[in-house]
Design brief:
- Helices cover 64% and strands 6% of the residues.
- The chain has 357 residues and is mainly alpha-helical.
- The chain has two domains: 23-60 and 150-351, no CATH class; 85-144, Alpha-Beta Plaits (2-Layer Sandwich).
- The chain has a four-stranded antiparallel sheet.
- A hairpin with a 4-residue loop joins β2 (109-110) and β3 (115-119).
- α1 (23-33) packs across α10 (196-213) and α10 packs across α16.
- The two termini are 42 Å apart.
Amino acid sequence: MPVYDQSYKHWEGTFKSHAFRWWVITKYGIKTAFKKKSLKLLSMLAVVPFIAFAVYIYGLTNLGKVAFFVSELGGHTPVADIAAREYEVEVQGDAAAFVQGLSDEGIPVSGQGPTYRIALPDEGNSKLILGIARKTGTEIARIVPPGVKETFYSQFLRVESGLLFFILVLVVGSGLIAKDIKFNALQIYLAKPITGTDYVVGKLGVLLFFLLMVTLVPGIILFLFQAILIGDSLYFRHYWWVPAAIFGYSLLVAFSASSMILALSALSGNVRNAAAGGAAVFWFTPMVGRILQQSTRNDNYMLVSLPDNWTSVGSAIFGRERWFDVPWGWSLLILMTVMLLCTAALVRRVRGVEVVK
């Protein structure tokens, strides 16, 4: 009868890793976060501004007079950043025949030339204007389709990155790492075939998921919704920069907020302390900045405020006028510095308990 060796044998296989090890942590964190009733409530409240802006776009694009009437009835100043079917056309040479051609078609036109504003019916688009120009022998130098102006999406993202955004950061981010440290779960994570960097990226992915869901995703959907309502391919060619601006601003806000709250969560090791520190950054620093700015009449003190730095960089991205006289490059430099320092502190804290192999 043969005797088999039942002693321990070393594994002789080849370990194959992959670049998305962190996704397991992110997926579990998202599922766990959705179990909180407070998060579900915040998610529903975050949808309200999106619905309001979508209704405004629809009303102003199709029922412009009704939208303005409702705004005035509510005591609010209408946002005149979306032109309902009003094209801006720049004509070269004598435009009298072109204007007459528009009048013959019953299309309202205003302006003294060479730039005219042309209000087309709901089914009209740039092809109608170009067709009339060809018939009248008029050369079109530039044509701007109706749609967003640079201030509209900036205003939307400022609303979405306001109070509810801050609360969402505190609710989701304060305990992401602090709870693992408190219950000694960090060592268990790092005992698995993942590195400290994988752990940090996974936790960062949880927070970025929720923050981008209330900034980037609704912003892009609004842009596409407006494009569908306009129904003109020229819209994408002219406003191609709007999705890029939404993407850049949303990532900047989400990354800076995420790195800051995760660093506080890791360094404090306590959920309440991390939330208190985050609240101080989000609400206390703007108060300090405004007090110092008002008392000294020096706008440079506004740079101590994280939200005001977001506003400054956002104004530069969307071409808005900044409300305090400080170059936006300083605000961008401060935000980048905050992200680098917070990420470095976070990685250092996590690697301090990494299991030695």
